[in-house]
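Following up on my earlier message about iron/sulfur cluster. Here are the inputs again, as you asked, copied directly from the submission form:
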Amino acid sequence: MKPYFILNGRNTPFEKGQSILEAAEANNVSIPSLCCLKGASPTGNCGVCVVEMNGQEVLACSTPVNTGVVVRTRTPAILALRQERIKELLDSGNHNCAIGSSDNGDWCDFQQTVQASDGASELCPAWGDCRLQELAYEYQVTGGGRQDYKVRQYPQKKDEPLIIRDYSRCIRCGRCVAACNEIQVNLAIDTDFLDADPLANPDKAYPVAKDNCVYCGECVQACPVGALVEKKARYQYRPWKAEKIRTTCPYCGVGCQQTLHVVDGRIAKVTGVEDGAPNKGRLCVKGRFGYDFIYSEDRLKNPLIRNNDGTFRDATWDEALDLVAAKFQQIIDQHGPDALAGVSCARSINEDSYQMMKFFRSVLKTNNIDHCART
Amino acid sequence: MASTFLKNAVQKGARLIVADPRAHRLVDFAELHVPLRVGSDIAFLNGLMHVLIKEELYDKKFVQSCTMDFEKLKAQVAEYTPEMAGKIAGLAPEMIVDTARRLASVKPVMLCYTLGITEHTCGKNNVMSVANLQMLLGNMGMECGGVNPLRGQNNVQGACDMGALPNVYCGYQAVTDPKAREKFEKAWGVENLPGNVGLMIPQMMDGLVDKKVRGFYIFGENLANTEPDIRKVEHELASAEFLVVQDIFQNETTKFAHVILPACAWSENNGTFTNSERRVSRVRKASEPPGESRPNWWIFKQLAKRMGHDWASNSGQEIWDNEVSVLSPNLFGIKFHRIENDGLQWPCTDECHPGTTFLHKEGNFSCGLGNFVAVEWTPPAEVADEEYPLVLSTGRRLYHYHTRTQTGRCEGLNDLLGEETADISLADAESMGIEDREYIKVKSRRGEVNVRARVTPEVPKGMVWMAFHFREGNANWLTNPAFDPVTLTAEYKACAVRIEKQ
Ligand code: SF4
Ligand code: SF4
Ligand code: SF4
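Thanks, got it. Here's what our run produced:
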């Protein structure tokens, strides 16, 4: 028989070894967390998942369930603790969505200062796709009015390729560290940043990536706030504008599952499909950032036929296809079908290779069809 | 991405052995790095099997009940003592013994390889040898065991499955089998499908020069940069009487075309890719193709029509659901509606079949018993000598894909890697007085390139390592067009070169 514990007054089954957070989730009771990352070990960094167990406050992510324990997730005291924690996080950085720093202090001045440092005239780039913002709404928390926003220092890396790391919005949750070190195992972020004091020693107090970063962007996908964002997507759109389309990565044989965030018919960013097989949400640098070649001005836009002098002229499809068909027929008539040969594409969809194979075998009547599998 | 799962396993306590001439990043996670010489794989593998048999560490039960020709293997590897194998592979005999014992000490052992095994003149034998080892250890037919080639291109598995090969239709049905021909004649409504096996790429290329091949159709391959010995390849392409290239960009190959057909790219198509694990996953249209570009399948359909054949299917889904899956027994159960989310792994023989994660379950090989094919080590076609004292081996780098027609046009990726380098060892750099990042010449019997040196501890003494992502400094100006006699895979992994200061 499965063991049971009492969750919000109900007898609730759990699996041995589950944390309170996992057991609650398995029973459709959600406990908020900003730092837990699926597949990585819990850290308890954010403190938001606090619950009451047998009258004590504990962190749900890192406390195992035991038979018979009494857990309450939404007592007034617990909710107050969470509110306090969320407020602290909002006040720890430049959270200039409608949430941050609005209790007192000069809101306009704060906005302008932050936007100037962002080089933008908009609210935070993560606005609408931010776990902290969601929780702040849910718990009705506003920032406490920071007075230090003009002088406080944060490390920033804005001149790297592909990723903007702006630790002025970092809540030091450690998800990026887990993503880099435990999921992708690139070991590019040191884990000891939590030991340093962000006020006294900002350069040491944030999870800045080291030189061995391979730009997989897993940390960006893991970041719950606007600290790590894709450079190419930053300020290009708001998340509710994007249609999400699942597809398969065009590069290597792993076949990672991607979510394309498509805005007005254009891919604005790419993320991994959480829990999708085979990659379970992970992507490499090419899968995550190698999509914009399709919009290159160099794309071929119409058929081309070679002139006698070696240059090419634009042609219509009818012209080009008629020419190919006629030329192939002529070669077959004069030299037989085996004087034709073709190489298919190992990058294109199955259906394309099938069609080419069918064309060569059933129409041209030759088996001279191959592709680059052997190379 | 595959390597991240490997590293996860190591973090959870799995043991990793890396056998590679180069000390690449995975070596940091390995308990043992076996830095064997380029092209000595069979000697090394036979040496391992020698030890396993001599010390009776192999899986006797598996060998007895699931395999045949063990005695032949035993006789073949008898001479590959650790001393003899070690000499060829440049390894201490103890290391071979040690590796063999480690391999025998756990079960299952998963063996993964990539092109370092196949891109040799003995590529097919290398693969045989790898399979021999795993059968001998009884690591076949179980989850987390087996022989796992990690495939390069996203759909190289799929292109094989679709029968873009000279000897088989889709689903690996042989063109030489009259019954298969009859089946496809009926399905396609045609007569007299050819029953002779067709040409492989290198034979096609030769054919362009000797006029056996007059019309050549290249779909989505930049052969002028990817094939060994660029000068030879360009001569061959230039000899084509009529060359059609279907692609999304102009590239080094389209220069030689008579007709260029503009095609849809990845996110402009609805269809499927099949990954290394034989998993068929959906590809979905997310953006409109530019100008007059058309789906590739549409182009073939239009050509067929002009040559008198009307094909019914008119979308990726119709082609897959009504033709490919119907005609390929292993794919029969895979339909678009079943792969809306996660894909399915073939064999998947009916619409209730859950797909197949791993093959040869419980030692059941598709051909009955697993066959040991004993093989002899042979050296690469070109080995280092006085004139060309270094071995050039090639591979890929993380930030680019093949000839960069795509990744070279993505913002940010060129910033991460903007040019080719020749990776050389600290020892060779020192003895030749070459500084990191200095421009050097790399020469082979076929050509030479000017390229920056990247002095790195990853590369052993005596080796130069390069990729083919950039036209300038492309390794294929140097590589040797020598091929495996059966698969006609080129020996990209080994040829002789020398380097010079500029
Ligand atoms: S990171 Fe989130 S909470 Fe902070 S400003 Fe941006 S949207 Fe608001
Ligand atoms: S991009 Fe990848 S390697 Fe770099 S810090 Fe983020 S997770 Fe680590
Ligand atoms: S950068 Fe993002 S993921 Fe990393 S610790 Fe800061 S908030 Fe968390």
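One observation from looking it over: Chain B has three domains: 2-150, 156-357, 390-501. Hope that helps, and feel free to reply on this thread.
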